[in-house]
Amino acid sequence: MNKGNLETHTVFACGIEVRVIEDFKKKIKELVYDADITLIGYICSRKQNLYLAQLKVKSMHDSLKLMINLRGLRIGNSKLRLRFYWPVEMQHHDRAYLNKIVEAELHKLNRKVNGCFYDVAIEHRKRLIYPIVNENKFEAISTNVLISNLPTSIHSIELFHLVTQAGFVFNLKMITTNMACVTYYGQRDAIVAILCLNSFEILNGQPIMVKFEDTNNTMHLMEEVKRIQLVLEKKSSESLARLPRPKSMTSYIVDPCPASPVSSTQNKTSSATHAQLDKQASNYRSDLQGQQEQLDTSDTQNANSAFPASVQKAPKSRSNLQGKIKRSKSNMNLKSNTDDDDKNLLCQRIQQAISSKLNITSSLSDSIIDDNKTMPKESPSFPSNSNQARKPRLKPTAKHANDVAKGSDLPSFIKKEYEFPMKIIFLIRQINLQQRLINDGMKVTFIFTASDRNNFGKLIVQTTTGSEGYIFDKLLCLVGMIDDCSYLSQRTCQYLARHNEIRDIINQKLQERNIDAGIACTNQSISIVAVNVDDHSKAIAVLQEAFDSQSTKLAIEDLYFEKNIDMFLSLIKENLPQSDNIWLEANLDSQSSTCTFIATGPRRLIGNAIQIINDKQQEYKVIEICLKDVSILKAEYLKLYNKQDIAALEKKYSCQVKIEATSESEIFNAQLCKPITIKCCQLYKDEIDRQLRDMIDGIIIEMDESISLYSRIARLFHGSKSKSKLMDYQQEYQCMLIPTNHQGHRLNNKLDSATTNLKGADSKMPPLKPKEEEKVSVTDTPQQAAVSLQSSADERRINNIVIKLRRGTIEKEGANCDAIVNSISLGNYQEGNIAKAIYIIGGSAYEQECCSKLQGLSVDQIGYTSGSYIGCKGIYHIPFLSSDKTLAWLSKRIEDCLTQADVQGMKSIAIPTIGAGGIGLNANDIANQMMQIGLTFSQQAKSNLQEIHFIVHPNDSNCYTAFQQALSNSSLEWGTQQELMETLTKSTNKVELDQKSDCQLLFKAQCTATKVPVDIHVYHGHVNDRKTDAIVDMTAICPKHATNDNHVDIANYADVGHTSQTLRCPRSSELNYSLFQICPYGCLAGLSTLLACINARGEKSVTIPLLDIEMNAVTIDCLVDLIESFIMNQLEDDNIIRCFDLVIGYQDRSTEIATWMQDKITNKALQLNWKVVQQVSIQNYGMNIYYIASNKTALSHIKKSMMQYGNTWARYEITDEEYFNTIEPNHWYQLALRVWTEYNTIIFRRDRSSNISIFGYETDIMNTISHIYYLSKTYLTEEANKEVQRIAAETAQWYAVIGSSRIKFETKLNYEIEKNYNIYSNDKTKKIFNIDSDTKIVDYESMKIKDPACGKECSITKLMLEGIV
User: Three-class SS of residue 109?
Assistant: First the structure.
């Protein structure tokens, strides 16, 4: 058996005929446009043309909406009313709660229908059983019934449809594929189920078996079942005995009234002709509908065939005789326990049901409108005499009965054919002329057929010989009928032409009042036809009393329907009871800005309709609502992927939904909100709000936090090719990917300044070179890598610092520096031209950070905030506008800024001309003082700060001139004569194959729980630059993993013993530290073992490079935990590693690790006592990635696709370069560690192998190869140059001469001076040459060398074998 859907947002519709499937789908989409419809065919042999539908919607509100609007509704021209169920798996209390809501809404709409039965035969048996069951004997307790021999393919809802016909079902549960347990609410319902369902054949020849589950405790119930079966058999026998048995084959016409007996052949011919030629007479067989269900005609024809012969107690002859008797008694619109024998009560309830449709006042107290409980099937324009049809007489009159009994004295019949206009045909049927003639003693049968002429019909009269003249006279009287509707308003006529059911009920009421008149409808118009003037007047009076038109006029200013009258009319109808029986019109007058509404229909209803329109006009005015609690991420998703849903919502409710645009500078955080404004009709604000919130609540947000910018996933956001692929994934899976920094700002194309060190795998950019290589110069091509230094009035190098003068604005020129100095007023961060310019660029996020971090700033302090908003690293704020505005105060704060920038590792700083505006300070004084501060700071022995930029506004020419003069007039004597000679005689660009640079300390923490404090440091630099006792080298891939082409599983390798198995400690006298080599696989898992080994060797400090290329915040947390665990094991040991140094080559990656380390020690629970000695000056948490989608599946798919597409570790081999042959093993270790920390790659060379293997991401491998080729080329070139220079120095030595001192030039400079001197000797016009990468100038005419950077010069001379030149 197929199980129903367990989701709560699912309903099932039963009783859908094949011919109305498309109409059914259309109706569903009108109510819930995004409903998922699955059609399932009934397996019952007699219901092959029926389907049930599984309807999945997005909310419980939608499922309730379907249930309320469609339950008991006929779709199109279907004979069946829809029956709706919740899933059978739903808990009873949930089903009861939802049904209570549905019943309450249906009660408001005055609708109590439930829908079609499963099988009419079951209903017939149930109606026979109900009066017999003694209800007082049984309790209202749940009773289980077992049903076996079920078809295995039956759907649970089809079975539920079947078993609920017997009674109220509490629960249904499948035991096996062909057996179910049904729990009925009461014992009586279980008894009825046994009697009605046992031996019922869902599939022909496969009767089901029904019995009580607990046979021991239900013996009294089985006795009641047997008693009822005996009563039914007795009644069946008695009814069979009373049944009249004609002596001949005479049959009776029982539709719509008894007729004279004719032969069976004539009867069949008459019926066939009637069905074929006069379809408009189908109301002769219209049945009154049951209060709960519409009984299927096909079920009626197969009523007894659903049970085997053993169950059918009545003889077949009786079934055939009564099978087509009008079902007005059995199918009457009454609830259970209707007394079918009480005809008076039956008629009374029919009248009450009819009158409930419309409560017409005055003389029409019986009402002329019925509701869908008693409404006949929709019929053509000519209704039959309902009064006679409800009381068909099977027995002929006494005279006819005698004729039948005699047999041989049967009268002879003749057949006459007449052709009349359709209105006369209608009147003949309306006054039921055939029955009147029969009442007069005539034996007559009328058969109506079609005519070849338009608006004409044929009447075939079968009667006895001699009666035709009398009948013709009666027909002839109708030719002079009255046909006029001028006394009715045009709208009333149009209303009656539109409403067939109303028209039929009026004609029925006219028959009941013995008014020989009726409403005929032809070609979408009506006529009031009557036998005479008196009856016509009575009919007109009835209609005028019952129907009317009323109107009201409304102003349309600010009303919802101003642009869509049809939409407004549909809204009005939804709020009107009996709206189907009212015809609403609207006439718009744009000149007067008014709209007139006209309601036509029953008087009482239209008055109510006009009153509702007037009362509810306020509900249709346009209002504006705002959803303020919508996450900014969800708002972005709505704009991108819910456009169609929002457009459908706007179209359906004629509303406007506006989502505020999000700028690039706004913070993307799931906790921040973006307002959504809605302009809509007040009536629908709650529905629109609900549907929008359903969309919003359906959006799922997940975040990957603190991802390294160098990780595999982050690299996807770099190159154009990978970003294009991400866009394709987002479109395919309907997802959004938003990369942000830790502050929530969306990352631009560079992602962050940190990513400038990465090149996308799809880019064609030149290979990355280390920073030191920019200073390397090859002798024969000095221009390729030379450092260009300007010597002008705008720039000067002093010691290691360059002071530059720039014209421009601080917000633009400052973006090219690491730091900016800003002038502010305390509490007001946009006062002044400088502060205002930076404030405009920084935006609201910058303002928020200033308010947060500068709140406690005093007038003699400097503040610091991030500079990411304008493109630099940091901004130093001095409260100049809140100070005494003196030059002394300003000088002190500028000195503080330079000192702080140096401490924080800034390379350059931009200082605007603070105080040179309208403050009152002299521009020359400011320029001289600022230059003095810069020159003084330049005399430091060592400084991280390399450039000081003074920024002068382009419109301030006087200030610029003052700064130029101050720079040129600076005569600070900062060097001695020896320093001058060192500058002139030494080459500025020595080539070192492994240049060293000092490591920069970014973070320091100390554990004080041990006898001797233990420190953790994070450095930016190279491992080889640290003075340490031990260095860990995890680039030594073991033979087991050396053959792998892909090493992405390094981080996930969890073999703790692998580290101890691969640990090696090579010894070398040239190394001033101990080297511990391990395989990178499992290095984090085996770190405890490694630290124990290092500690056992007595090492006091250890340097650890990058552990893994996918290193993130989680890795750092694990690393700190391992170090802390190691310390705890050595608390009582004096010989313990006292310093752990983490050294990373990438600047930004080192700040990432330092930031995560600080966050771990500062904000997370640790077992030991830690304190932060030096905080990270510029925090870098890496990046966050937000994943936004409408379901979990889409998120899973896009993450999987990103992992599959992302860069994977590759293996690349190069031939053994000569450069590698010259590298000693010690230098090889240094090179391997350098490319690992600098380029995230592992270089590997097997013993006795001529190939070098490089493992890493494709982009990193490209940069590593470039670096290796560069080193090889540089090495070979330098070796050749050294040999040439050595020979030159042996033959000609040049000296710098100052006074009586002579100092040799360095070999490289000596070679260049000699080479250029030979050129000068051959061509005296070429007397001035640039040497040492254009950093020095030699004038051979005056024999002097000059350093343009400092402006110093001295004489030169040459000493050869034969003497001095």
Answer: coil
> Is pLDDT of 319 > 60?
no
What's the CA gap between 1052 and 251, in Å, rounded?
A: 91
What is the C-alpha separation between 1022 and 1034, in angstroms, rounded?
A: 15
pLDDT(1356) > 80: yes
What is the distance, to the nearest Å, from the Cα of residue 1236 to the centroid of all Cα atoms in its chain? 42
Residue 1002, H or E segment:
strand 1000-1007
**Nearest 5°: phi and psi at 355?**
-70, -20
Q: DSSP readout, 1076-1134? A: EE--STTTTTTHHHHHHHHHHTT-SEEEE----TT--HHHHHHHHHHHHHHHHHTTT-S
What is the sign, positive or negative, of the torsion defined by CA atoms of 451, 457, 463, 465? negative
CA distances for 774 relative to 46, 563, 602, 686, 771, angstroms: 90, 70, 96, 67, 6
Q: Does residue 1264 contact residue 1235 with C-beta atoms inside 8 Å?
A: yes
Cβ pair 88, 47 in contact under 8 A: no
- Local structure of residue 684 (DSSP, 8 states): G
| Tokens of residue 1278, six digits | 């330098």
pTM surpassing 0.70?
no
| Distance, CA of 457 to CA of 420 (rounded, Å) | 6
Please say whether the beta carbons of 571 and 683 come within 8 A: yes
- pLDDT on residue 13: 94
d(CA 206, CA 148): 11
Q: List C-alpha distances in Å: 1212 to 274, 442, 1049, 1231, 1245.
A: 92, 112, 18, 17, 12
CA distance 634 to 292: 46
Is the bond preceding residue 767 a cis peptide, omega within 30 degrees?
no
Q: Contact at 8 Å (CB) between 738 and 636?
A: yes
Quick check: 119 and 199 in contact, CB under 8 A? no
Distance between alpha carbon 517 and the CA centroid of its chain, in Å?
Answer: 64
Contact 1135, 1092 (CB under 8 A): no
The answer to whether the CB of 155 falls within 8 A of the CB of 40 is yes
Distance CA 1022, CA 1025 (A): 5
Sign of CA dihedral 202, 207, 212, 214: negative
Contact (CB, 8 A) for 546 and 601: no
In this predicted model, what pLDDT tens digit does every residue of 1216-1242 receive, in sequence order?
555 566 566 667 777 888 888 777 788
Contacts of 591 (CB under 8 A, 6+ apart): none
3-state secondary structure of 1020: strand
**DSSP 8-state code for residue 576:** S
- The stretches of 85-134 forming alpha helices (DSSP H) are 92-108, 120-129
Q: Are the CB atoms for 526 and 499 separated by under 8 Å? A: no
Radius of gyration of the chain (CA): 51
| Strand order across the beta sheet in which 1251-1256 lies | 1210-1215, 1251-1256, 1242-1244
SS3 1349: coil
Q: What's the pLDDT band for 145 if we cut at 50, 70, 90?
A: very high
Q: What angle do CA 38, 40, 41 make, to 5 degrees?
A: 150
Residue (of 1213, 1216, 1211) closest to 1256 by Cα position: 1211
Report the C-alpha gap between 168 and 96 in whole angstroms. 12
Q: How far apart are CA 358 and CA 1022, in angstroms?
A: 94
The three-state (H, E, C) secondary structure of 1154-1210, written as one string: HHHHHHHHHHCCCCCCEEEEECCCCCCCCEEEEEEECCHHHHHHHHHHHHHHCCCCE
| Short-list 1021, 442, 421, CA closest to 771 | 1021
Categorise residue 1199: left if φ over 0, alpha if ψ from -120 to 50, beta otherwise: alpha
d(CA 1286, CA 1290): 6
Per residue in 822-847, pLDDT (tens digit) is: 999 988 888 888 888 888 888 888 88
